[in-house]
Every structure is written in structure tokens, then in C-alpha cells.
Amino acid sequence: QVQLVESGGGLVQAAGSLRLSCAASMRLFSSYGLGWFRQAPGKEREFVATISWSGSTIYYADSVKGRFTISIDNAENAVYLRMNSLKSEDTAVYLCAAVHYSKWGGGPRTPETYDIWGQGTQVTVSS
After folding, report:
1. Partner of 51 at 20 to 30 A CA spacing, among 66, 87, 97, 98?
2. Are strands 68-73 and 18-24 parallel, antiparallel or unpaired?
């Protein structure tokens, strides 16, 4: 059973930065794309970014474009989310997810498309 484990969340002031990490328990990046989602209390899970298994194709939500950067390290079996210029509205639980490459075409943005999920890491931005 493949597991995804997120880390790096915490409390940060507005305009600050954080880097989230997502580690896979086994090598899967050659067969899966990786994505980040977030979920705030009382809201639906929201797409943040996704990256292909090669790292060559990336998509971002408009709300984070220019501020967040997703990257992948196949040697480390890890995907990262660098978050700059954080805003209070970025406060949420951030979740890492993997989608089989057969479903990745166009960069999936719906949670239902993803096959494997981590437990999430809390990010709180204070204004």
C-alpha cells in the first residue's frame, strides 16, 4: 500500500513563505502524476497545483499562480510546494495526492480523479 506523507505546514505571517513536502513510501513517480489540494473549514477541497511524473508539465490554480511553485524529485520520491507571498485566504489543510498517468492528460484538477491521498498538513496564515 503506497502512502503519501505531507510535512512542512505551520503558522506563518501574511507575506511569508513555507515549503511543503510530500514523501511517497515507495517509488511511484514514474507511473503517477502528483498534485496538491487544500481544504479550508466548511469549504470543498480545492485544486492548487499538479505536476507530471517527468516534471515537464505543470498546472496551477489561478489563485496561486505566480506565488506557489510545485516541483518533483524522483530520486527522493518527493514532491514539494513552495508557497510565497502567503495570504490569510491560503489558510487550509494542504493535501498531497497521486493520479495514475493514464488519467493525467491535461492535468487533472478534480479530487475525484486522484487515486492516493495523504493525510494533510495544516497551513495557517495570520494577517
Report:
1. 87
2. unpaired
- Per DSSP, 16 falls in state -
Q: Which residue has the higher pLDDT, 69 or 103?
A: 69
CA 53/CA 98 separation, integer angstroms: 10
- CB-hemisphere CA count at 13 Å for 98? 26
